[in-house]
Design brief:
Blueprint: H1 3-57, H2 82-86
Length: 90
């Protein structure tokens, strides 16, 4: 075998190894994506179960899940200031 033949053969082997590595890397990323999806589903399911348990223990369907509550600031007229707190202290 001459040098050109060996060089061409090694180039094909390198390309094959590179392709195998890329395929393996693609499968690894696919596994990571599937794992993240399953973890999200499990966390959501657990949150729904806990909300249902809390709902049942607090008195039934009249209690909304915590995710429905939204924080809104008080209007300036309803906010307490330092003067309001001064007369409350003993």
């Amino acid at each position: 075998m001459n040098f050109e033949t060996i060089s061409l053969l090694l180039s094909w082997v390198e390309l094959g190894v590179l392709l195998a590595m890329l395929l393996r890397l693609g499968r690894t990323f696919e596994l990571i994506a599937n794992t993240q999806r399953e973890l999200r589903r499990a966390v959501n399911r657990l949150g729904e179960q806990r909300a249902a348990e809390l709902n049942n223990s607090l008195g039934g369907p009249g209690i909304a899940p915590a995710s429905r509550y939204r924080w809104t600031p008080l209007p300036a007229a309803d906010a307490m200031g330092a003067d309001d707190l001064a007369h409350l202290s003993p």
